[in-house]
Amino acid sequence: MPAAGSVAGAVLAGGGATRFGGRPKGLERVGGERVLDRAVAVLTDALGAPPLLVANAADAAEWRPDLRTVPDVRPGLGSLGGIYTAVVEAPAPVVCVAWDMPFVTVPLVRALAAALAEHDAVLPRSDGRRGVEPLCAAYGPRCREAIAASLDAGDLRAIGFHDRVDVGILSLDRIRALGDPERLFFNVNTADDLAHAEALWQHGSSRSSDGRTPARPR
């Protein structure tokens, strides 16, 4: 297992595209707490230090002035460009979490970080379209050159570099031991998703799925 504090965290906020009446989606609230703040808190609790914020919006540094905020080092290259930025700037080893995932938990982040002791990249299995969750995953230093090669080749798939590194997969059984995969990997892309996320939070117990007491609406 990596030594405590040896794995960094990164929140991937993507581009400047906005929804919900002009507000970036990660600034929307679930359970009274901004989705961005939930991700930051989980990564900080799990890894022992505040994460890097990878964001391209002009006002991104104002979202969390306490964090180091950087834009993509190779702009316009989608999710893989964001992962690459985290690997370079955090720097790797790093656990990346997309800023629109309100229910990622401390145990999940720690499981991803620990598995980097045996693999260059670690992704959780899911029922999503890729079969894995590259935007809630861990990446080691060897991923830097592997991702750069994919970007140079014009392959922007978030999993396109996997044949260049040793990839470990957390099985669905392992994930289920940590929580409901559909909840853990739920992401907010639309107003309907936001409403569903709020319903999921309301349906939960008096403690949130990440083990922290839910924030009160402000």
CATH superfamily: Spore Coat Polysaccharide Biosynthesis Protein SpsA, Chain A
Instruction: List the strand order in the largest sheet.
Output: 5-4-1-6-8-7-9
Can you name the CATH architecture?
Alpha-Beta Complex
How many strand segments? Answer: 9
Assembly annotation: single chain
List the uncertain runs: 205-218
| H-E order | EEEHEHEHEHEEHEHHH
Describe what is shown at a glance.
The chain is of the alpha/beta class. The chain is built from 8 helices and 9 strands. A hairpin with a 2-residue loop joins β2 and β3.
Provide structural commentary.
This protein has 218 residues and is of the alpha/beta class. The protein has a single domain, classed as Spore Coat Polysaccharide Biosynthesis Protein SpsA, Chain A. Helix content is 33%, strand content 16%. It is built from eight helices and nine strands. The protein has helices spanning 35-47, 60-63, 78-89, 106-115, 143-152, 172-176, 181-184, 191-203, and strands spanning 8-14, 29-30, 33-34, 52-55, 69-70, 94-98, 121-124, 136-139, 167-170. It has a seven-stranded mixed beta sheet, sandwiched between helices. A hairpin with a 2-residue loop joins strand 2 (29-30) and strand 3. Helix 1 (35-47) packs across helix 4. The longest helix is centred in the first third of the chain and has 13 residues, at 35-47. The radius of gyration is 16 Å and the shape is globular. The N and C termini lie far apart (39 Å).
